[in-house]
Amino acid sequence: MQIDVTWDVFKLAQVFTIARGSRTEAQVLTVKLNDGQHVGWGECVPYTRYGESLQSVTDEILGLPDAFSRFDLYDLLPAGAARNAVDCALWDLEAKRARKPVWELAGLEAPGPEITAYTLSLDTPEAMKAQAALHAFRPLLKIKLGTPDDMPRLEAVRAGAPTSTIIVDANEGWSAEVYADLAPHLVRLGVELVEQPLPAGEDHALLGMQRPVPVCADESCHDRSSLANLKGKYDVVNIKLDKTGGLTEALALRDAATAQGYEVMVGCMVGSSLAMAPATLVAQGASVVDLDGPLLLAEDRDEPLIFDNAGVHPPSATLWG
Fold it and tell me: Rounded to the nearest 5 degrees, what angle is found at the Cα of 244, between the Cα atoms of 312 and 273?
C-alpha cells in the first residue's frame, strides 16, 4: 500500500486567538492511502501542545511498514495526530473497497446533522461583544478565554448574544483560585459548560471543588487510558480525533466514557472538512458538538461539509467515508 503525505494550508477567515497564541492559517497534514484500486483519505492537525509538528508527524507516518491494518496501528503508533490521519484514511479505504459507508461498517446508526458550537476567539471585550452580536443567531457559542481578566469578556459576549447557549473554553489558562471566583458568575450568565479550566497537570485541584457548571476534560483526556485519572474532577469528556488517534479509538472512548457516567463532547482542532468528517459519526447524540473548524476557514476542501440551520451534516462519499 502506498502512503503519500502532503502539508496543506487553509487561510482562516480572521485571526484566531486562544490563551496560548494566535494564528492566521490552519496547517494540516493530509494522508492518502492507495492500494492500487482504491484511495483513502485522512487529515490531522499536529499540535505543539503535545510536542507534535508537521515534520514529526510525517516521519511517524512514513515510518510505517508496507502492510498493516487499523488494529495494527495501536502497536505501531501512539495516540495522536499521526495515528488519526492514518486510521481515518484506512476507514475511508475500507468503505470504498466494500462500497458501504463507514457508519455501516462500524455498526452505527445512519448519521444525521448535529447542532455545532461556533467559536469566538479571545479578544478585547468590545471585539468579542461585536463578534457575539454578529453570530447571535447561532444557537450555541463557544468562548475562548483563559486569562485572569475574563469577566468583562463574559459579560460582553452575553450582552452581544443574549439568547444563545454559551460554553467556555479556558484552554488550561485559569488557576484554581480564578476558577472558583468565576464559577458563580458563570452560573449567573447562563454558561452551560466549562472546558479545561485548569492545566492538565494541575487538575487535581478540581477534586472536592464545587462544580455549579459542568466541567469538561479536554487536554486531560486523550484516549481510554485517560479515564482513570478523571474521576471526581470532570463531568464531561471532550473527544477529539487528533487526541484519540483516530475514529477507531474515538468510538471506543465514547462508549467507555458513557459507561462510566460521563457526558460526551466532540471537538476538533482548526482543520478542514476532511478532518471533521469522521468526527461527525462520533458526534451523533453527543451532549455538545464543536465541529466548527470549516466555519473558521476562508477556504476549504473541494467537497466541504454542509452547515445549515440543522447543524453540521455527515460527509458525502466524495469527501470521506
Answer: 30
Q: Which of 238, 141, 145 is nearest to 190 (CA)?
A: 141
Residue 92's Cβ-count burial label (10 Å; 0-12, 13-18, 19+) is buried
Q: Are strands 39-44 and 118-120 parallel, antiparallel or unpaired?
A: unpaired
Which residue type, as a one-letter code, is found at position 258? T
Query: Does the model's pTM come out above 0.85?
Result: yes
State the Cα–Cα distance between residues 251 and 148, nearest whole angstrom. 36
Closest CA to 293 of 242, 226, 234: 242
Range 70-78, long-range pairs (CB < 8 A, 24+ positions): 70/94, 70/246, 70/248, 71/248, 73/245, 73/246, 73/248, 74/249, 77/245, 78/245
Q: What is the pLDDT of residue 17?
A: 83
**Contact assessment for residue 319 and residue 301, using Cβ atoms and an 8 Å cutoff:** yes
pLDDT for 138 equals 97
The two beta strands, 21-34 and 39-44, are antiparallel
pLDDT tens-digit profile of 88-136? 999 999 999 999 999 999 999 999 999 999 999 989 999 999 999 999 9
Give the span between the Cα atoms of 93 and 31, in whole angstroms.
Answer: 11
d(CA 32, CA 121): 32
